[in-house]
Amino acid sequence: xxxxxxxxxxxxxxxxxxxxxxxxxxxxxxxxxxxxxxxxxxxxxxxxxxxxxxxxxxxxxxxxxxxxxxxxxxxxxxxxx
Length: 81
Fold this sequence. Notes:
Layout: H1 11-32, H2 42-80
Helix pairs in contact: 1-2
């Protein structure tokens, strides 16, 4: 059985991941999080909305990485079978 040396992350894949995480960040920043921030001052509302949206975008990035590794592993097993 020959082991295939394929990169898990390519420059195009990384660019796609960054774009998707940017969309997720903007969605959470403008749509989901602002109604739930309990501050009346705009600066603090912006600060906590940005922080929370960054955390959610980080979770999206982790999910994309896990999806990529799982997909590549399934493709390798399909070729080996």
